[in-house]
């Protein structure tokens, strides 16, 4: 992760110095492409065991764009892009898009998995009884849809929430540098000690859950309780959950509509009790059964916030301050 983050931030630094040298009076770097390149290489390595630097130059340079196109074809029929109605309903939401426009890029991704993720494919076939074909498509789905798709929303949200808030940034930076002793270095274990950094990540997931809606059919009759009512649900009924409402429940969260970066910190009494009400993963962050084959909770429940915490800790190890505005980084002050 750190190697891929080095490449991402080197590229942002280079863009900032080029625009500053351009003499237009300001500097700005759009971080989206470097961020997606970072995600593609880091996630390929961690989820597939595939090294993108050993792949063809086309995959190295454009693998993330191939995934973006594949994602767009699946998501456009289900999301709103604020096109004038009824045009959006008629042209985007009335039929599943065909596969042929993305077939050739998808095949290149399949070839990449077959060639570079051999060991993972062997495990899938030998230990889990999948066919090679099933394993390839499942790995690509987890890589592209679950992980790349989710992080492509979450990490920009983190940067946007940092905005230009010098006070919050100072507290995060202080914590990161205190906890990152030379002996430990940057790791999942060392970021677990960073109470404020973790709280910032959780609060971002609370205010802007990257996958806001969930659907499911009741498997049996049951009673669904809220604070003060009980609803009878019948087997087979279709249920929809909308996370942004659930996670702004003012009976649970004080100042529920405000971004309070240290809300989940131990000092504020956040901790495990409040995390029972954090549902971005389609289940509680603490308590409950945890992700399992029977409940559709995200299997990245623990790995996702930790990865986001490493992302932030890396940032505040490398820089003293950052300014983010409308999808661009407008200033970066390197650590002294
Ligand atoms: C920011 C990143 C992520 C977000 C926001 C996210 C969110 C979610 C949500 C909301 C669901 C439930 C979907 C539904 O049933 O409607 C889900 C399911 C799932 N997620 Fe994630 N996820 C993320 C990253 C990951 C990662 C990194 C992995 C892989 C390790 C992963 C693997 C899965 C799987 C396999 C499911 C399906 C579970 C099932 O139906 O049994 N996710 N994710």
Automatic annotation (TrEMBL):
Keywords: Heme, Iron, Metal-binding. Pfam families: p450. Its cofactor is heme. Heme binds at residue 298. The keyword Iron applies. InterPro entries: Cyt_P450, Cyt_P450_E_grp-IV, Cyt_P450_sf. GO terms for molecular function: heme binding; iron ion binding; monooxygenase activity; oxidoreductase activity, acting on paired donors, with incorporation or reduction of molecular oxygen. This is Cytochrome P450. The lineage of its organism: Eukaryota, Viridiplantae, Streptophyta, Embryophyta, Tracheophyta.
């Amino acid at each position: 992760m750190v190697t891929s983050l080095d490449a991402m931030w080197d590229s942002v630094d280079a863009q900032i110095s080029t625009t500053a040298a351009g003499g237009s009076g300001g500097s700005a770097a759009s971080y989206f492409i470097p961020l997606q390149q970072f995600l593609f290489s880091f996630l390929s390595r961690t989820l597939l065991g595939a090294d993108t630097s050993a792949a063809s130059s086309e995959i190295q340079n454009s693998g993330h764009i191939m995934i973006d196109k594949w994602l767009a074809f699946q998501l456009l029929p289900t999301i709103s892009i604020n096109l004038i109605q009824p045009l959006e309903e008629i042209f985007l939401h009335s039929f599943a898009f065909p596969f042929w426009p993305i077939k050739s890029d998808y095949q290149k991704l399949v070839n990449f998995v077959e060639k570079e993720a051999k060991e993972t494919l062997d495990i899938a076939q030998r230990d889990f009884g999948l066919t090679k074909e099933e394993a390839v498509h499942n790995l690509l789905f987890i890589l592209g849809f679950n992980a790349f798709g989710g992080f492509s929303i979450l990490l920009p949200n983190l940067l946007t929430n940092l905005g230009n808030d010098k006070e919050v940034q100072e507290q995060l930076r202080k914590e990161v540098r205190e906890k990152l002793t030379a002996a430990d270095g940057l790791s999942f274990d060392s970021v677990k000690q960073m109470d404020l950094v973790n709280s910032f990540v959780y609060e971002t997931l609370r205010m802007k859950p990257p996958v806001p809606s969930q659907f499911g059919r009741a498997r049996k009759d049951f009673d669904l309780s809220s604070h003060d009512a009980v609803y009878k649900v019948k087997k087979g009924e279709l249920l929809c959950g909308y996370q942004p409402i659930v996670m702004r429940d003012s009976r649970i969260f004080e100042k529920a509509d405000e971004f309070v970066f240290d809300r989940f910190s131990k000092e504020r009494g956040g901790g495990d009790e409040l995390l029972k009400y954090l549902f971005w993963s389609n289940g509680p962050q603490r308590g409950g059964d945890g992700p399992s084959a029977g409940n559709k909770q995200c299997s990245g429940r623990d790995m996702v916030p930790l990865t986001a915490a490493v992302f932030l800790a890396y940032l505040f190890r490398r820089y003293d301050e950052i300014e983010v505005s409308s999808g661009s980084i407008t200033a970066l002050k390197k650590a002294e």
